[in-house]
Automatic annotation (TrEMBL):
GO cellular component labels: endomembrane system; membrane
Location of the protein in the cell: Membrane
PANTHER family in UniProt: CATION/H + ANTIPORTER, K(+)_H(+) ANTIPORTER 1
Residue ranges occupied by any Cation/H(+) antiporter C-terminal domain in the UniProt entry: 563-721
Coiled-coil region(s): none
Name of the protein in its database record: Cation/H(+) antiporter 20
Domain Cation/H+ exchanger transmembrane span(s) in chain numbering: 10-350
Ranges where the Cation/H(+) antiporter central domain occurs: 411-553
Amino acid sequence: MRRIFPKWSTPILESLATVGLLFFLFLVGLELDLNSIRRGGRRAFAIALAGISLTFVIGIGVTSVFRQAVDGADKVGYTQYLVFMGVALSITAFPVLARVLAELKLLTTHVGETAMAAAAFNDVAAWISLALAVALAGNGGDGPERSPLISIWVLLSGVLFVAFMMVAIKPAMKWVDRRCSSEHDTGDEVYISLTLGGVLVAGFATDLIGIHAIFGAFIFGLIIPKGGDFARRLTERIEDFVSGLLLPLYFALSGLKTNVAAIKGGGAWGLLVMVITAACAGKIIGTFAVAMMCMIPARESITLGVLMNTKGLVELIVLNIGKDKKVLNDEAFTILVLMALFTTFLTTPVVMAIYKPARGVAAAVHRHLQSVSGGSSDELRLLACVHGPSNIPSVLTLIRLTRSTNKSSCLKLYVMNLQELTERSSSIIMVQRLRKNGFPLISRLRRDGQLHDQVALAFKEYGQTGRVSVRPATAISALASMHEDICHVAGKKMVAMILLPFHKRWRKINGEDEEESLGHGWRWVNQRVLREAPCSVAVLVDRGYGNEGQKTAAPAATALQNVCVIFFGGPDDREALELGSRMAEHPVVKVAVIRFREKYRMEAEGMVLNPSIWKNRGTSYSPATEEEHDEEALAEFRRRWEGAVEFTEKLGVDIVDQVLAIGTSGEYDLIVVGNGRRPSTMVAALADRAIEHPELGPVGDVLASSGRGIASSVLVVQQHVSEGLPVSKISKAQDDVNGRQEQISSAV
């Protein structure tokens, strides 16, 4: 090990690790929102206080045993040793807990909400206790640093420092936050540089006072406003450098200080077992008792206790400070480090074993548009997913056109703002900003104009003006499991269709199409939703749909929106036809249906594009039956809209060229197509070509592929294969019952 870290490198390593630690604690302060702590309520405060108090009480006995069993521990003052031991046993690592909850998809559940609020209280109390411990410890020797007067002076100076930061620096940071908001074009580089310099100055000030430098950095991060864009930008600028380079050095330094060989004999290992038992018992029993008194169910109460026992880097920081102050020797330090590692590793599997909310999909549910008759006792339920404000115009326009103008029909719209959760601290800040008392429902627009609130406000305004029930929510999850949240909400809320934005968009910039891509991660989300959704799915390929800048080459004189439905046949195309029928009810929409017929009638055996769809459902495919369903759907459509909708039939010759001609004609704002999962020779001819986006089907891929001069937006519809699955009507009475359980617990 000395070859990797020779003795001469230790001072350099310690300097870099200290800088990394300083900025990490600054990021921890950025993650903590004082407003969220105040909103946590008495229950979260009581839970946090119980966990801390009982652990400190147990820590008295642990301290007595350590001072007798560990060599040299009795030379340290009892009060200093007790405070450090109590902080080490009682601390809850807020950043680690947030990521554990996010990984387990509990962040916006009742348990997650309570745990986060209690952990925030716990974190603040822990840092105050640590400041007290440092003030009492001095340098751990017998010199004047241990004088009570000096400790009191250090504490009073620390209080004055906090007061100065709150009174003088906090208003200045609010001004900086306003200057760096999205409403201003002011560059934030200067303000970020000044802020980072302020972190160093704050750390120097608290170190000069006699409290550790990390305390000043933590307070500086705590006073920065969390609602605006500045905190997010600041975090995104420095977190990779801090977390990717500087913090690993601190971990390496902690590892070099940890000497497992210091644990010798059965007595030392007995101390380790005792410390682990004391830490777990204090947190779990204290939290469980108070949670039960607060009328929280037993299973959730014990889960809260386990979650509150989460340690992490914050624990290592406390222990390293204790060792630097000579309060903890090698043996005590190693025992407590192993305790922190064990309790943290234990959290996730224990919580998964004790508490994992059921994610069953409702059995009785409308699974596609064709099952919604539009009667007065039925309502259409849609789940619209967006990636942010950029999707608002296209999705809102599509929803407006889909809603029936029949006053007796009802539309309930669920909106999910999809946000990726990563290991970055800014993701946790985003989680906090999107939670209102721990719930994912967004009900107001904050004055700082956050992007996610723009989404909620836009859809809320539409709901008020269009007599539509709108329920906005935010799903914050890793891309690998985002589809689970979407499908769970779709099943729980019994929606008929999920609307997804395509992972690519095209915009006209200087007369040329510019492609914007969110990356393959979002593409995989769409693919998984299409594969596992409990209802129909529509993917919107946006080329400026709903924006004022979109102009068709030949706009209709009597209609503001021109919609074309391309029909080959099959369940997906019938669902697209049903969607076109709903759009035709809108007075500003002109719908045209183009049906392709096979030039030569032939059986299309062996040409199922996705046979697993039928086999997995236990459904036998019959070409004659499918054709009969197609004719029935077309006959009903023509009967209903004869004279109001343009209906054209074309022979299936040169399908690719004909489909491209429709897309490049510029006559249509939106082209609606099916996903094409049917054994049709025409669709199979499209599938023979190289497909760039197979999740859109052969027809959708032709229209969505770039570089073809297509100006129209495309909506690709996939009908849920509902044979053998229960389908029932949703009455308003049933909705009233379901409305009492509006929390979307899976939207993390």
